[in-house]
């Protein structure tokens, strides 16, 4: 009796230490970034374009670009991803096409992001004539986020108790009424959490955007999706490859801005999820 | 993905808010293009200019596909590139803007060598070179392994260096570390006492890492790459002009682009030093401006 319980305590302690380590590592990264970024902090930093002089360099176009990209990615990937998940879980027969599609989608989630960049260049930038625009970037990132959105949404839908569906069917509801009225509201918190993870990841992607042709420097903040592609991760990349030491601080500042954007997105998602859970209870 | 197609269909024509001017091409010219665009935008607020870096070959390809209005190039267009450009009806002007020297750099801690002859450079970099240590290169130097760093094969600097030193573009040994990023070449050389690399002088000048440029001896004594020796031609033959290619001279973007190109040419003389290049010899800029003005006169 003593042995296993002891072991379990040991594992508990070990997990605690690891968890504390992860938190400490994250805090260290945040503090180091903030410390480095401190010298770049002034109001103009958020609005100005980049510059050859580190003191004058700002993240205006890059920050606007990243917000555009995030909005486009969510707007494109969320409806398509949830739709696919609903179809695969609720409508499609368990065998045949659905099984094949489901397997393919799950595998797509593991494809390196730069591959999506090459596909996006051929399909969106060249094929559909979008050029190196925010729209081409948003579409590419949406395709990149899609497999994760589908996989996590499917898991959330599958976790909805069977009894809920059967009760609704028993009252004479159609399949769509069951999906809309019962399954989706119950699955929504899981879908939001999983999708958030996907969009956080795509918002930090530089590689596919560099393949599409992201701007290294631009004089204006993009105002429509047809404007040239700029983003915080590619701006960080452009600055960190410069030889002047001062740009390390500016790059760190852009990193902090990216963290804040993602924090705001996650808080918004949390609020939405909280509302949904409150409503369904 | 249908959504993407639909959105593409209704995305607005970008020319209705003033055209976006796209500058692309050589990483060697990026610092200059960035400086010119920055100053131009300060002078003309509301200018919409984008600068990208795709390398000389990548920039010229996009230029000939009409995606790019101004392409920076660290070598003249090849005949194949020119033919492709002409086949799609893109008219272009090549304008030299600054002079760059290719610097051969070693670690600052390497005091054994101060100068290399062209013959030694050739023996070191030729395909299948048997030189692995400094002693192989010149008796009397330490028997330490030379770690080599250089630009990759899509780079104009690679093209230029190999054609000057080996006599044939692209002829190079392949057992060295290749990167398009000048900063990584410098970092690599700074990280090992017995390493050697070559890169454009701007990448070398901008650096604070401990590397030192070697002099090159072409038979008339040792000459180090400095803005003066590069500008006046004494650091030849490892000095070359960098160009911009401009296109679309006859469409509605013309005035805007013309102003930008004129600004580019006039500002290059001043900015050359700031970004690590040498200005062209006196008279060159005036010649280019006259050429541009002539091209404008000739347009309908």
Summarize this structure as a short list of keywords or feature phrases:
heterodimer, A: 281 residues, mainly alpha, MetI-like fold, 2 domains, 10 helices, 1% strand, B: 300 residues, alpha/beta, nine-stranded mixed sheet, three-stranded mixed sheet, 12 helices, 40% helix
Descriptive report:
The complex is a heterodimer of chains A (about 280) and B (about 300). With about 280 residues, chain A is an all-alpha fold. Chain A has two domains: about 1-40; about 45-280, MetI-like fold. Chain A contains ten helices and one strand, in the order ααααααααβαα. In chain A, helix 2 (about 60-90) packs antiparallel against helix 7 and helix 4 packs across helix 5 (about 135-160). Chain A is globular and about 70 Å long. In chain A, about 45% of the residues are buried. The mean pLDDT of chain A is about 90. Chain B is α/β, with parallel strands linked by helices and about 300 residues long. Chain B folds into two domains: about 20-100 and about 240-300, D-Maltodextrin-Binding Protein, domain 2 (3-Layer(aba) Sandwich); about 100-240, Periplasmic binding protein-like II (D-Maltodextrin-Binding Protein, domain 2, 3-Layer(aba) Sandwich). Chain B contains twelve helices and twelve strands. In chain B, helix 3 packs parallel to helix 4 (about 80-85) and helix 11 (about 255-275) runs antiparallel to helix 12 (about 285-300). The N and C termini of chain B lie far apart (about 45 Å). Mean pLDDT of chain B is about 85; it is low at about 5-15. At the A-B interface, helix 2, helix 5 and strand 1 of A face helix 1, helix 2, strand 2 and helix 8 of B.
